[in-house]
Amino acid sequence: MSRRFRKQYGCPVELAVDVLGGKWKTVILARIKEGPLSYGGLRKAIPGLSDKVLSDKLRDLIELGVIEHGGAPSDRKVYALSRRGRDLAPALEALYHAGTQLSPDLGVSFAPLSPGHDSN
């Protein structure tokens, strides 16, 4: 892993936030948590994310061991949560729930999920 982390953190939340770094990794993980997705499936599921950022974040998440990809070289790669990524599922579900609770007060709506994905 090329990314280096500090040897000591103040608390586990600080490390988790450092690993996830920014909103896009968390959003990608939340989408993949619902089931494996191809690159194109992720692009459709997260329209506000550019190709470059998606590629960079996928590479980071693979390097961190949070997601894995499968498929023969001639096939489309499919991205899925690794064991380490599945350990993050409760945190992703808590963030999903928090966003759901906040949305009415903030007047925010959500784009529908792509077919085949549940809501959380």
Give an overview in words:
There is one protein chain. This protein is 52% helix and 8% strand. It is built from 6 helices and 3 strands. It has a single domain (12-101), classed as Winged helix-like DNA-binding domain superfamily/Winged helix DNA-binding domain (Arc Repressor Mutant, subunit A, Orthogonal Bundle). The protein has helices at residues 12-20, 23-33, 39-45, 51-63, 83-87, 89-106; strands at residues 37-38, 67-70, 78-81. With 120 residues, it is mainly α. Residues 116-120 have low confidence and may be disordered. Helix 2 packs across helix 6. It has a 3-stranded antiparallel sheet. It starts with 11 loop residues before the first helix and ends in a 14-residue tail after the last helix. A hairpin with a 7-residue loop joins strand 2 (67-70) and strand 3.
